[in-house]
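Render this sequence as a predicted structure.
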Amino acid sequence: MATEQCGRTLVLVVEGDVDLRTAPAVRQALESALGRRPWRLVVDLSRVQFLDSAGLEVLLAAHRQAAPRTDLRLVATTRATWRPIQITRLHEQLAIHTSRAEPIAAPARRGNKDRPPRGETHQSVPSLESAPS
């Protein structure tokens, strides 16, 4: 995992599998990133090859920990990450994007930061049928 600072946005790049074995390291990286108190934290999952329930739980816990101080957003570009997020309906709670540039450039949310604005994830993330494999 690596972090990159882009203005007031911190990007955490996660690679490989995010499962029961690796979830504690991802949790620690997320907690460390949130400890830096960025305005926005983008978790780039584009290099993740496998995401299971332990990984999903870590992402949801980070979302809860971030609110309301930090705007947490995910980048899910492959079927390996988008499918588990969609099946568990986490896309209804988390802001999901299909490129790293989208969440960095996105305007700040207004109102309830615990929910993405209506349609945000549905417009920016492909359906399971069109998600890359």
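Summary. The beta strands are 2-6, 9-18, 40-51, 71-75, 95-97. The two ends are 22 Å apart (CA to CA).
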